Amino acid sequence: MHICSQVAAKVIGEVKTLIIFPLIPYGILAVFYMFWISAALHLFSTGQIVQNDCNSNCCTYDLLAKQVNCDRCCGYSIHHTPHFRVAIIFHLFGCYWATQFFMACSSTVIAGSVASYYWAHGETSPEIPRLTVFSSMKRLMQYSLGSVALGSLIVSFVESIRFLLESIRRNLKVNSYEPDNCLGKAAYQSSQCFLRCIEWIMKSANRNAYIMIAIAGKSFFAASFIATELIMNNILKIGRLNVIGDVILFLGKLCVSLSSVVFAFLMLDTHMYKSAHNKISSPLLPVTVCWALGYIVASLFFAVVEMSIDTIVLSYCQDSEEHQGTAHYAPPLLIETLSDQNEVQRLTQGPQ
């Protein structure tokens, strides 16, 4: 993990546009959400305002007329067409699919940039384009948009099914139809665990498929097959790297967010915010907001590091598979560290 982190840091240092690249997909998502909210408001405004039917006598005092009115006191409601629910479901599903699609495009572009660095022998080769990120974006738009859209669609379908089942469970619980016996509860918990496992497997498979799409330029299913085969052949190494990597990246996000908290607290502890009209009665809310924003920003940029590490690992595994256990295109830093053949074999095959 330390080796891959060093190489990932080297890649980000060489391909500097990767540092600011996360702002592009999230900016596109922000613009998309503005249009989506506008479309949702127009969709909800398509109903007709109808006066409620009054079956009982009721009266209300009209402030404008200054008299009691017994004609229109039942209020109004909005009636939509029968296809309104279908339109709402389609609109929500489209929002989730588009979100997954933009995030998948972001992952593929990052993976393509890192793969260009790896497969060109790192910084020693003049074959790396000067604007690697934009070259990766160009390849994505020319060759891989359909594969990325298909992968995001599969994730959206699985997540929608899980959401539907969760909604049914909540309705049954409200209507007191939740299973009381141990067998029913066990079946429910097992189904929930199974759905979560399916969701995690699909997201992980899609993530690795996006990396192989960027590396090999294959279609979605071909890239998924290659990625799955590489992971199964190197499952021990990738498993260790994923566990250790997740812990290290989480600690990194936590350190960044806690640093934001400390900085915010020290700033609020100055004389400026302790007197006059700028006085803060309690620093709890500003500090909490700073912690949340710090964690979000850290997650945004650490995602680049995480995707870089995953791309380096799969590229190394693919390189080793193509050259009979010897990584031919590995960057110099990786070659120097893994120059021992026994270490290479141990990392690529795991303990026997």
Give a quick rundown of the structure:
The protein is mainly alpha-helical and 352 residues long. 72% of the residues lie in helices and 4% in strands.
Mind sketching the topology for me?
Blueprint: H1 2-14, H2 17-20, H3 23-44, E1 48-51, E2 60-62, E3 67-69, E4 76-79, H4 84-119, H5 132-174, H6 182-216, H7 220-233, H8 235-268, H9 284-322, H10 332-337, H11 341-349
Antiparallel strand pairs: 1-4, 2-3
Helix pairs in contact: 1-9, 3-4, 4-5, 4-6, 4-9, 5-6, 6-7, 6-9, 8-9
Question: What features would you describe in this structure?
Answer:
- There is one protein chain.
- Helix content is 72%, strand content 4%.
- A hairpin with a 4-residue loop joins strand 2 and strand 3.
- It contains eleven helices and four strands, in the order αααββββαααααααα.
- The chain has one domain.
- The strands form two sheets. The chain has a two-stranded antiparallel sheet with strand order 1-4. It has a two-stranded antiparallel ribbon with strand order 2-3.
- The chain has 352 residues and is mostly helical.
